[in-house]
Amino acid sequence: MHDGVAKILFTLILCFSTGRTKAIKKDIVFLVDSSGSIFSRDEKQAVDFIYNVTKWLTIGPDDIQISVVTFNTEIDEKFKLKKFNSSAELLPNLKRLIYNSPHGGTETAEALEFVRETSFLPSHGGRPDANKTVVLLTDGQSDNSYNTLRQAELLKALNNTEIFTIGIGSAVSTSNDEIGGISSDPDSYYVQQVDSFIYLCNLVPALVPKLGKF
User: Can you give the residue range of the structural domain that contains 55?
Assistant: First the structure.
């Protein structure tokens, strides 16, 4: 077994063996960069990452709901928070999730605005009594850093809202002002980085307990 996979399994088994508490009611939006600097194989790695995180979470109308939104020059909501009401429904559809070919710019500001104004609406499945979480995956600087940081602040200003940022590749780093500015504080908890999409799986053990509140 690959050392990275073994580490993930050991960490998660340990987590469950110590006792799992009921998850906080939470609406989670995975916001995934699909701009022209990303390869199609990278998007598959992103899908696998979301799948491997989600399979450990309690999915349901009284627990956790998941939405996936991709962005480049355009915003594409793959499915709404209210689309799937159980892991049995959600996980097969995540496996089948197909992104359009990566293209265009990195309009992170518009993506964050879409999540704030649309993703968490009741018509999309947003629940007024649920905590709100955004997990942003990006491989580079946005096209307009000022607007991106402004939209991030507006999003974080919503009640019970947090943003995790995952920087991928050499174009971003945990010291990047934009990545740190987008995320909630402290950066040590909300910001992570990997050298390539293929290493996203290494982040699963750290992220799952934060999302599931084990």
Answer: 3-212
Question: Does position 184 have pLDDT exceeding 90, yes or no?
Answer: yes
User: Domain count of the chain?
Assistant: 1
CA dihedral of 8, 11, 12, 17, whole degrees rounded to 10: 150
Please give the model's pTM, rounded to 2 decimal places.
Answer: 0.87
Which residue blocks in 81-197 are alpha helix, DSSP H?
87-95, 108-114, 145-156, 177-182, 187-190
Task: Write b or e for each residue in 132-146: b if 16 or more Cβ atoms lie within 10 A of its Cβ, otherwise e.
Answer: bbbbbbbbbbbbbbe
- The C-alpha atoms of residue 76 and residue 73 are separated, in whole angstroms, by 10
Work out the pLDDT band at 101, boundaries 50, 70, 90: low
First vs last C-alpha separation in the chain: 26
